[in-house]
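Input record (Table S2, row 388):
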Amino acid sequence: MSATDGMRADWASKDFYAELGVKKDATADEIKKAYRKLARANHPDSHPGDTAKHEKFKVVAEAYDVVGDAEKRKKYDEMRQLYGSGGGFRPGGGGGGAGGFDINDLLRDRAGGGGFGDMFGDLFGGARGRPQQQQRRPQKGADVETTATIGFTDAIEGVTISLRLTSDAPCPDCSGTGGKPGTKPHICRECEGAGFVVASVGGAFTMNETCPACGGRQLVYDQACPTCHGSGHGLSARSIQARIPAGVKDGAKIRLKGKGAPGEQGGPAGDLFVTVKVTPHRVFGRKGDNLTLDVPVSFDEAALGGEVKIPTLGGAPVTLKLPAGTPNGRTFRVRGKGATRRDGSKGDLLATIEVQVPATLDQTAREALEAYRAATAGKPLRAGLFDG
Ligand SMILES: [Zn+2]
Ligand SMILES: [Zn+2]
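Output record (zinc ion complex):
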């Protein structure tokens, strides 16, 4: 079998004639008539919300695509004969096969492109472009990424945030058909309702291409849906609550299991990845699990020593005991007043002394400093700069 003949592994398990309600030896004309009748009777537009009819519509379209095409019908008949009429052989059974043999595994990469997945993906807004045999198995939903900005304190303490997520969905007004609501479609004349046309790619090979007239939808509306302008695509929005753990760092990516796109065919939901941006704090900084704080002190506090009250994040202030002669830039560690670690323990608060020089002096202060200068004269600070 060549890669371009469009033959599919799952045909063997399907009775397309029964789906169309025709005999195995029905003529092409009888098959076409049966298909049109069933397609009309089960069309999603005439039965909004009726999933059983939607399913039937898909099934008959698939059946007609195969047995409505002389070439494919011949291959289908051969395949059915080869494997029996779907009795014991179940391709694509989702891994339950007793012998461990799955014809899909052999054919997956060889099956022709542009299968039904494309067609119905466009029509019903799900699983665009996936080969059909995969679509039928439980599928994990897609992972979704988003960003969230939280406050500095929330990042330290943890916070529950509300996220609004939008994702691709069928247009709500036309249910993804692309047609103006209330109007009736007609079967595409270009592809006669098959959804694809056969294009020659040279030599003996032909390939199925999505029908340019109906875009694979099989049906055409004379008036486009005003909401989606005929594309059938829309967006759905949902709100979810997400717990951001304590101690999260700026730029961290948090994985929320099962909060991504819903799964298909009973598969699990995908994950949501939230990149967290943390707004800076007015006075506190962050270094790993530790918080940092610059503490302005006056020259006399540094020189004489003293008690300095400093704030902590979300707690009561603490008092730093400065020893006499504390140099500018010295860092004091206040244990347990930092960010919360993953194990629930806490980092430290690192308080760094910044000695301030007064910009202006009143009379008394000036006299005091001049007295200080006189008292310390003769102790050159910079002698060492000129040594050697
Ligand atoms: Zn068409
Ligand atoms: Zn629409």
